[in-house]
Design brief:
8 strands; binds pyridoxal-5'-phosphate; TIM Barrel; alpha/beta
């Protein structure tokens, strides 16, 4: 087996063990393979290993990759920052956008979603640990934005997404992820039909699953180290 397929199996085993430890069914958690900076051949290898959902940060790079992989039934998730001038590409080409952090971006995504496509699934990115320079909505502004986004006709609000700073150990990681889980429960209690917590990466997926993650975004542990930052 190739390295990518072996790595995928190892990551699936980590997810299964984390679900067992948390007494959660393993199909609660979707694995998103983060293929940013890797070419179409790496995505093909992962697909051959049974992987269907892929996450990309750089929109132009992603759209070029999708064109080369159009023969495969893949699901594409935008997990990078979305500037106004990129919303049309996201609305046209992606299945999910995890990084909605302003109503203006959500509005454009909804307006630009092509007729005939299913609604674009979106998450609101939350700045869960308050990093000053970070993207994401402050936790106390999430509910207001969520109510507005939930009304947009061509979007389907699915839940929340976080990218916390690296934390020193499992308990510290879990504590931050638990704050996002509590915020999701609060929105659900207010009547929003949400089913997604996009959190956990190669280094902290166990803690994220312990706290209630439903979608882990894993790059390095599947594809190896990236040639450039991102
Ligand atoms: C790169 C990236 C990931 C994957 O990170 P790894 O540490 O390589 O698993 C997940 N989420 C986002 C938003 C990313 O930018």
């Amino acid at each position: 087996m190739t390295t990518i397929r072996n790595n995928l199996q190892a990551v699936r085993a980590r997810i299964a063990a984390a679900c067992a430890a948390a007494q959660r069914p393993v199909n609660d958690v979707t694995l998103l393979a983060v293929s940013k900076t890797f070419g179409p051949d790496a995505v093909r290898e992962a697909h051959a290993g049974g992987q269907l959902a892929f996450g990309e940060n750089y929109i132009q790079e992603a759209v070029e990759k999708m064109a080369l992989l159009a023969d495969l039934p893949l699901q594409w998730h935008c997990i990078g920052p979305i500037q106004s001038n990129k919303t049309r590409l996201v609305a046209q080409h992606f299945d999910w956008a995890h990084t909605v952090d302003r109503l203006k971006i959500a509005q454009r995504l909804s307006d630009q979603r092509p007729e005939g496509k299913p609604p674009l699934s979106v998450c609101i990115q939350v700045n869960i640990d308050g990093g000053a320079a970070k993207s994401g909505v402050p936790p106390n502004e999430v509910a207001g934005l969520a109510r507005e986004v939930a009304r947009l006709p061509a979007l389907r609000l699915r839940g929340l997404m976080t990218i916390p700073e690296p934390a020193p150990d499992f308990e510290a990681q879990r504590e931050v992820h638990a704050r996002a889980a509590a915020l999701l429960r609060q929105l659900q209690a207010e009547g929003l039909a949400l089913d997604t917590l996009s959190m956990g990466m190669s280094a902290d997926l166990e803690a994220a699953i312990a706290a209630g993650s439903t979608m882990v975004r894993v790059g390095t542990a599947i594809f190896g180290g990236r040639p450039r930052a991102g």
